[in-house]
Amino acid sequence: MKNKIIVVTLLAAVVSAPALAQTPATPKNVEVVIDGVAGFQDTPMQPDGKWHVHDPARPQPPVVTPGTFSENAKPPADAIVLFDGKDVSEWTDKQGNPAPWKVEDGVMVSAKSDIVSKKKFGDLQLHLEFREPVPGKGDGQGRGNSGIFFMGQYEIQVLDCYGNKTYADGGTGGLYGQHPALANACRPPGEWETYDIIFTAPRFGVDGAVESPAYVTVTLNGVVVQNHQAYRGATNWKSPGKYTPHGPTGPIALQYHNNSVSFRNIWVRPVPLVNEP
Ligand code: MG
């Protein structure tokens, strides 16, 4: 019986191998597919005790077709503009070299590596528009993957989830690996999509303990998909999240995940919390 179990496990690993091309699992994790969703059920449990990290059985966010709203609108007067269609001068790669993303027709296209904002922020309001490539290629996490990382480490996922299933905690508008979006409000690839996000930085005590976690409220295409949701720490693949104490500000990072995702009209307004205890 024991041998049989081993054989079945190995077979599962072999069968799922092609789907691992984008994000290879370490040998100890075996990808499983449930209802067309590829994920893992041998990763750490979420603190809710119900789901594994990237659990394919975790319910999918309900699909909500967005309405209409203003796009590529003029930023408010006090906004700090991080991309206005001209150049990537507000960004570098992670080593501080010029950002390798291309600018074409007023649009910034992801390429080669992640990019990081030169300016650092704590609590903020962010506006950003993105467009997934046409035709959509790849499945699950391999389809139009990018991401917005606040303070360089707290991700809100950017993915082409229009008709593309992935594990719920890795979908568009999700806190990657932690909390799914409340709704799947994705537009089809080739159409511009709009994020308006309020991020509150975590606070650490002098001993490094978390005094208050990071919070995020996310509107995607006019639909609220996170409502003051707490992060459980930095977001990472196959990790339930862990805090490492850091300073009060950090850069915004945009992910390059082997897909060419377009961006435009990126601006920030610092919105510091007041009346803190
Ligand atoms: Mg991502």
Please tell me about this protein's structure.
The N terminus is likely disordered. It is globular and about 45 Å long. The protein is mainly β and 277 residues long. The strands form four sheets. Strands 3, 5, 6, 8, 11, 14, 15 and 17 form an eight-stranded antiparallel beta sheet that branches. A five-stranded antiparallel beta sheet has the order 4-7-16-9-10, with no helix packed on it. Strands 1-2 form a two-stranded antiparallel sheet. The termini are far apart. It has a single domain, classed as Sandwich (Jelly Rolls). Strand 12 and strand 13 form a beta hairpin. Helices cover 5% and strands 31% of the residues. The relative contact order is 0.21. Magnesium ion binds next to strand 9 and strand 10.
